[in-house]
């Protein structure tokens, strides 16, 4: 086309005037325009392939091939901590303790941990409880991993310890060779660093509700996920970690615009396409607060609202705290984004809403009137179907003396479409100024007959909902009696 274009134009010019010259001139123009069009199309396709071919290079360790798809053989495992003494009829998932040991065992080059506080050794309670053994074992393994006898670089981002919060574990780890950065979220956003996740060798991850606390392994009920062999997802979580790491550097403040290296192309609009256990899936990681979200990152609140909005049959929520306020704000502020969304889908689409909320002696009293109000949205004839249950982890007489323990600390949601596994309590503060993150897994498009993550999380929810540890919240429930008095003598 290019040669035809130049040739005919030249001949037309040289022969000048006359019938055939005009024809030739037209032909020349046509071929020239076609050349231009083809050139534009070629350049555009080059441009589209450019970013992915850069990511494809082995030095980046990525295996994103085209657009947002990932060819890693990702394996996902739902993991739980079931408090000692609790019994369920149906099966429970592998333990968080075992999965942390596995992750430590896998580590060859790096381990990055984002954490709220550290009490893996039972020094803070003076209780000498034998169930502290698992936390102490994890701490021992981490100390060993941090030492310069291994080639593994251990980095820990932790919320700046406040007041009486113990720092012993952190000091021991630092002495052993771990790199620890304290993130002063109170100064940065008036919140805390509440996120809990691990990244191993930039390819395996853990994310969930468990704190770096021995109680999170044997005394508090927790839920999380581990994803092995998934560098695409790990690299994306690493970007969230790197933001904490940056903010943990003395003197650094939140940039008004995060540099491109923190940006992501995986979000609720364009999630990562990958295989979990060979089942085609999409996934993305959300983050809070908004000021810590770089370009492209879905805010945690937006993730929750869109997951609820996407549900057609049911929304099951299991969180420790659910309060439509900014809990820690003075003066008081009402905050109803999530509450509105739940009521909206219940009303507009007759979606069945179930909330499984924790109740213990430290529960905020203001939580219950709001939960009762939600539970009142229940009417068969108008197809309004919201129900709330309170989950109690009963203590034994000896366990009663361990402070801040025996509670359901889960933070997840499952709908008829997707599973959302997070690290935040559900009240305004956690989305406005506190750092948290979540993994959203969508397998609705799969044709596989394997159990999906959504089905597994649903099974956990239904197991807990139907267990004798859950009690329906009605207008008459005696909260004080239910939440603070021992109910299950047997345990
Ligand atoms: C580890 O570091 C310590 C102190 O920094 C040093 O004395 C020791 O030789 C190192 N050990 C190894 C195996 O490099
Ligand atoms: C990761 O994948 C490799 C190769 O398929 C496999 O040998 C290894 O066991 C996997 N690791 C984990 C932790 O699943
Ligand atoms: C899950 O994926 C389907 C397409 O496969 C999409 O229609 C739906 O909106 C997604 N849901 C969420 C909550 O991302
Ligand atoms: C969640 O809320 C409870 C009660 O307000 C609080 O004690 C806890 O620190 C919050 N975060 C965690 C650890 O989940
Ligand atoms: C994925 O496979 C592992 C075993 O390799 C299993 O434990 C886990 O439950 C599977 N996950 C799902 C969602 O089926
Ligand atoms: C186990 O099943 C029995 C009989 O169905 C029931 O009475 C009991 O409450 C169940 N226990 C739990 C922990 O779910």
- Number of strand segments: 22
Q: Tell me the β content.
A: 15-25%
Q: What is the residue-mean pLDDT, rounded to a whole number? A: 89
Unreliable residue stretches? 48-62, 487-491
Radius of gyration: 27 Å
- Shape assignment: globular
* DSSP helix fraction: 25-40%
Biggest beta sheet attributes: 11 strands, mixed
Secondary structure category: alpha/beta
How many helix segments? 14
End-to-end distance: 84 Å
What are the bound molecules? Answer: 2-acetamido-2-deoxy-beta-D-glucopyranose
Task: Summarize, please.
It contains 14 helices and 22 strands. With 491 residues, it is α/β, with parallel strands linked by helices. Helix 3 packs parallel to helix 4.
Characterise the protein shown here:
The protein has 14 helices and 22 strands. Mean pLDDT is 89; it is low at 48-62 and 487-491. It is an alpha/beta fold and 491 residues long. Strand 18 (411-415) and strand 19 form a beta hairpin. Residues 73, 75, 106, 228-229 line the site of one 2-acetamido-2-deoxy-beta-D-glucopyranose.
Which labels suit this protein?
disordered C terminus; binds 2-acetamido-2-deoxy-beta-D-glucopyranose; 5'-3' exonuclease PLD3; eleven-stranded mixed β-sheet; alpha/beta; 14 helices; exonuclease; 491 residues
Question: SSE layout and pairings?
Answer:
Layout: H1 2-15, H2 19-56, E1 75-81, H3 96-106, E2 110-115, E3 118-119, H4 133-146, E4 153-159, H5 168-176, E5 179-183, H6 185-189, E6 197-200, E7 204-208, E8 212-213, H7 215-218, E9 222-228, H8 231-247, E10 272-276, E11 279-288, E12 298-299, H9 300-310, E13 314-319, E14 322-323, H10 337-348, E15 352-358, H11 367-375, E16 378-379, E17 384-391, E18 411-415, E19 418-422, E20 426-427, H12 429-432, E21 436-442, H13 453-465, E22 470-472, H14 479-484
Parallel strand pairs: 2-4, 3-8, 4-5, 11-12, 13-15, 14-20, 15-17
Antiparallel strand pairs: 1-9, 2-6, 6-7, 7-9, 10-11, 11-21, 13-18, 16-17, 17-22, 18-19, 19-21
Helix pairs in contact: 1-2, 3-4, 4-5, 9-10
Bound molecules: 2-acetamido-2-deoxy-beta-D-glucopyranose (6 copies).
One 2-acetamido-2-deoxy-beta-D-glucopyranose (NAG) binds at residues 148-149.
């Amino acid at each position: 086309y290019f040669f035809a274009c130049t040739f005919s134009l030249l001949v037309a010019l040289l022969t000048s005037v006359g019938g055939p010259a005009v024809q030739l001139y037209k032909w020349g123009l046509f071929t020239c325009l076609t050349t231009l069009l083809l050139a534009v199309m070629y350049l555009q396709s080059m441009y589209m392939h450019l970013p992915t071919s850069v990511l494809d290079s082995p030095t980046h360790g990525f295996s994103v091939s085209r657009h947002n798809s990932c060819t890693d053989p990702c394996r996902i495992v739902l993991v739980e901590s079931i408090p000692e003494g609790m019994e369920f009829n149906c099966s429970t998932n592998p333990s968080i303790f075992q999965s942390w040991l596995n992750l430590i065992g896998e580590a060859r080059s790096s381990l990055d941990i984002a954490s709220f506080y550290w009490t893996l050794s039972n020094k803070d309670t003076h209780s000498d409880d034998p169930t502290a053994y698992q936390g102490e074992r994890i701490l021992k393994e981490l100390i060993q991993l941090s030492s310069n006898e291994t080639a593994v670089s251990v980095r820990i981002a932790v919320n700046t310890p406040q007041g009486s919060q113990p720092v012993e574990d952190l000091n021991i780890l630092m002495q052993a060779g771990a790199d620890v950065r304290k993130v002063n979220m109170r100064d940065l956003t008036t919140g805390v660093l509440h996120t809990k996740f691990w990244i191993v060798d930039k390819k395996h991850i853990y994310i969930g509700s468990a704190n770096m606390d021995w109680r999170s392994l044997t005394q508090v009920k927790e839920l999380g996920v581990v994803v092995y062999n998934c560098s695409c997802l790990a690299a994306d979580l690493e970007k969230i970690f790197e933001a904490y790491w940056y903010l943990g550097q003395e003197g650094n403040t939140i940039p008004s615009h995060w540099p491109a290296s923190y940006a992501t192309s995986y979000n609720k609009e364009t999630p990562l396409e990958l295989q979990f256990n060979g089942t085609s899936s999409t996934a993305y990681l959300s983050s809070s607060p908004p000021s810590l979200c770089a370009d492209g990152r879905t805010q945690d609140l937006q993730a929750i609202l869109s997951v609820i909005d996407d549900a057609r049959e049911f929304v099951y929520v299991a969180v420790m705290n659910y309060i439509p306020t900014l809990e820690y704000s003075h003066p008081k502020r009402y905050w109803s984004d999530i509450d509105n969304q739940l009521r909206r889908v219940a009303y507009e689409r007759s979606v069945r809403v179930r909330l499984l909320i924790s109740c213990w002696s430290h529960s905020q009293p203001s939580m219950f009137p709001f939960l009762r109000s939600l539970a009142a949205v229940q009417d068969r004839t108008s197809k309004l179907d919201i129900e709330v249950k309170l989950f109690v982890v009963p203590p034994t007489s000896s366990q009663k003396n361990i402070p801040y323990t025996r509670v359901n600390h889960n933070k997840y949601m499952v709908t008829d479409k997707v599973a959302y596994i997070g690290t935040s309590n559900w009240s305004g503060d956690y989305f406005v100024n506190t750092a948290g993150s979540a993994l959203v897994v969508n397998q609705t498009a799969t044709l596989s007959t394997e159990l999906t993550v959504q089905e597994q999380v649903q099974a956990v929810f239904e197991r807990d909902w139907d267990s004798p540890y859950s009690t329906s919240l009605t207008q008459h429930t005696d909260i004080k009696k239910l939440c603070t008095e021992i109910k299950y003598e047997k345990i």
